[in-house]
């Protein structure tokens, strides 16, 4: 390994912010970083977004406590392994939701590692495929990642606004591309949160006519400012009913089960609602699907190929997330506010 400082410290003890037990608060903690391998890049974490998935992961979804969350990471490279070819010490890099996969199956060989048939290794709370150690996320001073799962951050972009693109951005971009959103498309985005606000920007930039659906009347002006052509307050039945048979595609980012039938009814014949929010179940009447030959689909985060494409697309079009940057001592407050839908639109922790 080459390094900017002390070459003899891997594996080493890393200061982090973790929840030690399920539903616990986030506390300062430290862990032993796994040993670096020839294809690994070690980086100092500069910034890390707080995704609603982190709320799920410190609660019901977490598996290997203590959990160090964070999968919207911007870092600066401090060491590179001897086999690394694409990165150098000092590079500004990004890490998203995964750090490894089997690399052999069909999805992996197509650069869609998030759909690895043998299970992608998540950036945190996953198990390292080689030594079985628990993976640790971006709420830490340092991270380690095989270069295949690391991205260059385009020059000149706002780093805090770019961090959320590594999950909120790609999770929105991937289905918008998969369902061919572009000029002539009429698109609904349900939920103006971390994912939804980036989705509005992306869909608009792709050329679609965009309607935002929000439960929050106080987000109407904000959604228009993000680029929505039209905003529907979704708890107003009349506003939703006025859009029946309107949309080719709806990206639903809602994090919980909600009454979906009225929203599904706003799809045109053969329209698709893609729910990326991973609620426990869907509350929808099948007749709403039958009547318009409509589909409900879902999508995970994108793979490495599409993530690199998304970062370039966002840099080209000046798309970043709207963020509230916080210091680590405000993480617990940020989790409380995120769970209460009180952020416009993404918290990003400044780890520097
Ligand atoms: P977020 O910032 O909390 O945004 C979710 C939005 O949903 C809220 O801002 C709110 O928007 C709306 N909402 C909340 N409760 C609602 C309810 N009861 N009924 C209707 N709308 C409601 O969360 P996020 O970070 O965007 O993440 C959203 C979900 O996506 C999470 O569950 C997360 O785990 C999941 N996710 C999935 C993937 C994937 O791979 N598929 C990747 C990342 C995240 P309004 O105030 O505008 O109504």
CATH topology of the largest domain: Quinone Oxidoreductase, Chain A, domain 1
Low confidence ranges: 1-9
Give the N-to-C terminal Cα separation: 23 Å
Find the count of extended strands (DSSP E, 2+ residues): 18
What are its keywords?
Quinone Oxidoreductase, Chain A, domain 1; eight-stranded mixed sheet; binds NADP nicotinamide-adenine-dinucleotide phosphate; Rossmann fold; alpha/beta; 2 domains; 18 strands; single chain; 352 residues; six-stranded parallel sheet; disordered N terminus
Structure in words:
With 352 residues, the protein is α/β, with parallel strands linked by helices. It has 2 domains: 5-166 and 302-350, Medium-chain alcohol dehydrogenases, catalytic domain (Quinone Oxidoreductase, Chain A, domain 1), CATH 3.90.180.10; 168-298, NAD(P)-binding Rossmann-like Domain (Rossmann fold, 3-Layer(aba) Sandwich). The protein contains 11 helices and 18 strands. Strands 1, 4, 5, 6, 9, 10, 17 and 18 form an 8-stranded mixed beta sheet that branches. A 6-stranded parallel beta sheet has the order 13-12-11-14-15-16, with helices on one face. Strand 12 (209-214), helix 6 (220-226) and strand 13 (230-233) form a beta-alpha-beta unit. Helix 4 (168-178) crosses helix 5 (194-205) and helix 4 (168-178) packs across helix 10.
List the helices and strands and how they pair.
Elements: E1 2-3, E2 13-19, E3 26-32, E4 40-50, H1 52-57, E5 73-80, E6 92-95, E7 98-100, H2 106-109, E8 121-122, E9 142-146, E10 150-152, H3 159-162, H4 168-178, E11 186-190, H5 194-205, E12 209-214, H6 220-226, E13 230-233, H7 237-241, E14 247-252, H8 261-264, E15 267-275, H9 286-291, E16 295-298, H10 304-317, E17 323-326, H11 331-339, E18 346-350
Parallel strand pairs: 11-12, 11-14, 12-13, 14-15, 15-16, 17-18
Antiparallel strand pairs: 1-5, 2-3, 4-5, 4-9, 4-18, 5-6, 6-10, 7-8
Helix pairs in contact: 4-5, 4-10
The structure holds NADP nicotinamide-adenine-dinucleotide phosphate.
């Amino acid at each position: 390994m080459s390094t900017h400082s002390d070459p003899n410290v891997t594996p080493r003890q890393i200061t982090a912010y973790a929840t030690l037990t399920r539903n616990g608060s986030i506390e300062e903690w430290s862990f032993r970083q796994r040993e670096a391998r020839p294809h690994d890049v070690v980086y100092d974490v500069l910034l890390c977004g707080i995704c609603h998935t982190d709320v799920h992961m410190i609660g019901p979804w977490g598996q290997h406590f203590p959990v160090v969350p964070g999968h919207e990471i911007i870092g600066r490279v401090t060491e590179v392994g001897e086999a690394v070819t694409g990165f150098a010490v000092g590079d500004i890099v990004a890490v998203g939701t995964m750090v490894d996969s089997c690399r052999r199956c069909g999805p992996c060989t197509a650069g869609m590692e998030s759909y690895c048939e043998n299970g992608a290794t998540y950036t945190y709370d996953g198990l390292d495929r080689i030594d079985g150690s628990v993976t640790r996320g971006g709420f830490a001073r340092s991270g380690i990642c095989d270069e295949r799962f690391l991205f260059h951050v385009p020059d000149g972009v706002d780093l805090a606004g770019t961090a959320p693109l590594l999950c909120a951005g790609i999770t929105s971009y991937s289905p918008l591309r998969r369902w061919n959103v572009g000029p002539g498309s009429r698109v609904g985005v349900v939920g103006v949160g971390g994912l939804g606000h980036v989705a509005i920007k992306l869909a608009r930039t792709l050329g679609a006519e965009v309607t935002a659906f929000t439960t929050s009347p106080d987000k109407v002006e904000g959604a228009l400012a993000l680029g929505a052509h039209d905003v529907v307050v979704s708890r107003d039945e009349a506003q939703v009913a006025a859009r029946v048979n309107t949309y080719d595609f709806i990206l639903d980012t809602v994090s919980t089960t909600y009454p979906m039938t009225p929203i599904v009814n706003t799809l045109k014949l053969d329209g698709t609602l893609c729910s990326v929010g991973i609620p426990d179940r869907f509350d929808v009447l099948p007749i709403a699907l039958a009547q318009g030959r409509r589909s409900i689909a879902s999508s995970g985060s994108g793979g490495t190929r599409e993530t690199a494409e998304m970062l370039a697309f966002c840099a080209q079009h000046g798309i970043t997330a709207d963020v509230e940057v916080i210091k680590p001592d405000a993480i617990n407050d940020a989790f409380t506010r995120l769970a209460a839908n009180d952020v416009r639109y993404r918290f990003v922790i400044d780890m520097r």
